UniProtKB/TrEMBL annotation:
Record organism: Shimia thalassica
SUPFAM superfamilies linked to this entry: Acyl-CoA N-acyltransferases (Nat)
Protein name: N-acetylglutamate synthase
InterPro entries: Acyl_CoA_acyltransferase, Bact_Acetyltransf, GNAT_dom
Superkingdom to which the source organism belongs: Bacteria
Domain named N-acetyltransferase: residues: 36-199
Gene Ontology molecular function: acyltransferase activity, transferring groups other than amino-acyl groups
Keywords assigned by UniProt, alphabetized: Acyltransferase, Transferase
Classification via Pfam families: Acetyltransf_1
Length: 199
């Protein structure tokens, strides 16, 4: 089967078009992938998103974080934030049965300082269900977010990435500015990477 011409956009998400033109792309694999639907999150999604976080982070973070760090940190990062769910720029990825298998979005307000700067945004609380990794879910959520942010008039996106997700964000075009330590609560510190991308 011939691959489509590389200049022809067949899908809404650029990641799929890049995949189609990759030498390693397997059409049989894509044919077996269930469809993924992205929609805006709503306040009523809090339970489903919290369940997603509680399945995702405990399984995906241990390679880069010690057990004591995770015991302290996980209670603070595995609960959905009502403000994000209601902001209109936080999105959910669902499978064809309606199950939430990914989440992520952006705001124009910094999660660390609570302030905004003209033209700048912040990637927020991205997670993928561990049973659905390597299906492009996080990539599609980020691309959806960046597209919406550009339409909003933003030109730069910040991200406070986990150590685990740093390679993913670098692949998405983000550049590491430096390692930081987030204070989630008194005495609770979470090592992360400050990243930035011109969008």
């Amino acid at each position: 089967m011939q691959k489509p011409h590389p200049r022809v956009r067949l899908f809404a998400f650029p990641s799929m078009d890049r995949a189609l033109n990759s030498d390693s792309f397997d059409f049989r694999e894509v044919a077996m992938r269930p469809p993924i639907h992205i929609r805006r999150a709503m306040p009523g999604d809090r339970s489903a998103v919290t369940q997603l976080f509680r399945k995702s982070y405990p399984q995906l973070l241990p390679d880069e974080y010690s057990a004591p760090t995770l015991r302290a940190v996980l209670p603070h990062i595995t609960t959905a934030q009502p403000g994000l769910l209601a902001c209109g720029t936080y999105y959910l990825a669902q499978d064809d049965q309606g199950a939430v298998i990914g989440a992520g979005g952006w705001t124009d307000v910094s999660p660390a300082r609570g302030v905004s700067r003209e033209g700048e945004g912040h990637i927020r609380h991205v997670a993928t269900h561990p049973s659905h990794l390597r299906r492009g879910i996080a990539r599609d959520l980020i691309e959806h977010s960046l597209s919406a942010a550009r339409d909003f008039g933003l030109s730069r996106m910040h991200c406070m990435s986990t150590l685990t997700a740093r390679p993913f964000y670098e692949e998405m075009g983000f550049e590491a500015v430096g390692e930081i330590e987030l204070t989630l609560a008194p005495g609770v510190h979470f090592p992360a990477v400050q990243m930035i991308s011109e969008i």
